[in-house]
Amino acid sequence: MHNAEFVRLLAARLGVVQELCLTAEAILALPSVMTDVSQPLLVRYASLQAFLIDVRALTVFLLGPGTGRVFAGDLYATHFVPGWEADEPQAGRLNELVPQVNKHLAHFTITRMGDGETQLPVDLHFTDQQLREIAEDVRTLWDDFASRRNDLYQIGELPPWHVPGTDRLRTEADGLSGTA
User: Fold this and answer.
1) pTM, whole model, 2 decimals?
2) Which end of the chain is less crowded, N or C, counting CB atoms within 10 A of the terminal residue's CB?
3) CA separation (Å) from 35 to 2, 38, 131, 166?
4) Where would I find the H helices in 35-158?
5) Helical axes 3-34 vs 128-146, angle rounded to 10°
6) Residues 23, 58: Cα–Cα separation, whole Å
């Protein structure tokens, strides 16, 4: 393998790992934004949407596509940890949430938008406690999965792509070697 090809594959691998870890971190962080009444309503609404879409994406990644469609290039936890299964009760609760997010958020549907005549738009509503419970369910499954690999971080660990002394994420311009 040529050096340039190796660097390209390494960058792609680091990108996947970074995306997975950041998504898991965001899921745990967003409930505090969504429930903060000092935040503008639009920020809270956008945070809720991001939270639910990220929960949906990470749930499908961790639990597999189920009976859903599988697209070429989709990644699942079993690609990283062969034979991995999430058998905790959290998996069942999160799996029940996926169709709700699909119908009420991920796609414009009659269920979400109404039919314009007799059906009114429906939205997903959660209490602050329910949002935190969803986040904790994700934490349990993610941390179990991440603990089985040495290149994935459990929620709350400082990943090497943070630039030390800042809240900025390392970019390609900073180099991919893990040093600033």
Assistant:
1) 0.74
2) N
3) 50, 9, 9, 26
4) 41-63, 77-80, 89-101, 110-113, 128-146
5) 150
6) 7
